[in-house]
Amino acid sequence: QLQLVESGGGLVQAGGSLRLSCAASGGIFSNYAMGWFRQAPGKEREFVAVISRSGDMPYTPHSMKDRFAISRDNAKNTMYLQMNSLKPEDTAVYYCAAQRIGVHHLSTSRNDFDSWGQGTQVTVSS
Q1: Which of 3, 77, 110, 120 is a Cys-bridge partner for 9, taking CB atoms 3.0 to 4.6 Å apart?
Q2: Which whole-number Å values give the CA distances from 9 to 22, 56, 91, 92, 93, in the listed order?
């Protein structure tokens, strides 16, 4: 399993931007589809974005597509989440995760991801 470390979170005003990074180690990064999830206090962990192993197939839900973009650099063993036009409701802990090898489609279910980072806090003030 990969070891994953997120960075780039912080406090930002509404309308601002952040870029989260997820550094991977302990395996062949390009073998894994990767995803971002988030969890706000008192809420379920929510899917944010997923990207294919090569990076040529990113997917973000329609509700976030205009503001969030997922990407990866396999040469650097790193995945990114660019977040623009942030809103207070985006406040959450953001987690990166590696999709289980046996899952052959790009999944939006947290149950299909078996390596998780510790999370990075994103707080958006109004």
Answers
A1: 120
A2: 11, 25, 10, 10, 9
